Amino acid sequence: MPADAVPAPEPVPAPAVAAAVDAARDEAVAALLAFAPDAVELGRRFAEAGHTLALVGGPVRDALLGRLGAAATTDLDLTTSARPEESARLVGRWGEAAWDVGAAFGTVGGRRGDVVVEVTTYRTDLYDRVSRKPAVEFGDSLDADLVRRDFTVNAMAVTLPDGAFVDPCGGLRDLAHHVLHTPRAPEESFADDPLRMMRAARFSSTLGLRVAPAVVEAMTAMADRITMVSAERVRVELEKLLLGADPRAGLELLVGTGLAAHVLPELPALQLEVDEHHRHKDVYEHTLTVLEQAMALEDGPDGDVPGPDLVLRLAALLHDVGKPATRRFEPGGGVSFHHHEVVGAKMTTKRMRALRFDTATTKQVARLVELHLRFHGFSGGEWTDSAVRRYVTDAGPLLPRLHRLTRSDSTTRNQRKAARLSASYDALERRIEELTAAEELAAVRPDLDGEQIMAALGVPPGRVVGRAYRHLLELRLDRGPLGEDAARAELLAWWAEQPEASEG
Description:
Residues 418-445 form a coiled coil. Pfam families: HD, PolyA_pol, PolyA_pol_RNAbd. GO terms for molecular function: metal ion binding; nucleotide binding; nucleotidyltransferase activity; tRNA binding. By secondary structure, this protein is of the alpha+beta class. The protein folds into four domains: 13-177, Beta Polymerase, domain 2 (2-Layer Sandwich); 178-264, Hydrophobic Seed Protein; 282-443, Hypothetical protein af1432, CATH 1.10.3210; 450-503, no CATH class. It has helices at residues 14-35, 37-48, 58-64, 70-74, 84-94, 142-147, 171-176, 186-192, 195-206, 213-221, 231-242, 247-257, 260-263, 283-296, 310-318, 323-326, 340-354, 359-371, 385-395, 399-408, 415-439, 450-457, 463-479, 484-496, 499-503, and strands at residues 53-56, 75-80, 97-102, 107-112, 115-121, 126-127, 134-135, 157-160, 165-166, 179-180, 210-211, 328-329, 335-336. A seven-stranded mixed sheet has the order 3-4-5-2-1-8-9. A two-stranded antiparallel sheet has the order 6-7. β12 (328-329) and β13 form a beta hairpin. It is elongated and about 90 Å long.
């Protein structure tokens, strides 16, 4: 061996690995019990009544991952051997409030201070594979209850109050290997609830877990079953995926398995064929890179765009969805996508409505898609004051996000071109700051308000006032502040040319 060679590390014996895993497990369980003393007390009440109670799902998993936070300890899922009526009695005595979450499903809710619990009786459901509605059957075994859950990493439990760790499906092992398995055959699990396929993609984004090959294979074979799930449930999983630390991983899984073709077909449609004669960027890869770059520009909690920001991430994901519909092969081998931002904004609105996004979010994302190319129309030349005013006014409160989306949209490998685009946008932002300081661009208004317009023209409220207002706003954007006298003169000159003036 050469003198400067670094010797390979000695392999760690398997017993040492097992001991380390056991120690980490015990530490995580202790931390979970320490952070959830109210749940421990509730477990004591159930035990005194002759029932078992256990923490399940996310809090257990997150404790093992070292991600235990306030949300994990104040919103707790528990499972019990007690029937719903007995759970309701015990939770009612423990908490300040109790309620029926779903008696038919065996779930009782309760609150004590900031701690909210949902206690569900052990279940051994049988699903109708057509309607997906379970025929609820209560069980008597914690292990059997855990086996029916979506993934092994969510099929672990900690019994209360004693803190015993229960893991019949090897969830701890899978967490240690960063892999996602289903407790049963994935085909059975996904047939029971097809939304679990979306959750697999979500967990690859939020938890950094690699989805097991058998699970990917089942997702691919059963992708069309996602159409049985309501749009609202699909949207919730997509939102969580996009807000994760690695949405690329989740999105690539959706596309690779064919799920995206059913829930977000605009994404796989971006995989445009690129040939040697008609060269253009790989729009799909470009889109994922833009998303990652936009995420990198999100701010801390006190910034203009605190991350994770759903609107910015959706806009980055959808900004080029209009390209497939507008692609044209030009003479000489070029490719154009004229007006793809306008087409893309319409497609974005349609898709987000289909996924039942709220109206405000849909409008914001579609507007960013529509505006994302506005900068490039001026990047090669000097920005006039009028152009700057219009840029700021059209973006409105979305301006901080538009800044980040526009910067993220540069994925060129040409360092000189990238530097030129960055410098050009730096110059635009400086111009915006200068004009904002001088003219309060964030609140651009005409020099006359509606009351002043009606007084000057002698007209009542109506469409004429709206048209006059828009005319003065255009003048304000083009020429800056005019002052009331000059604006009134311009208004009267405009009014003299309107047909309604002669009718009066």
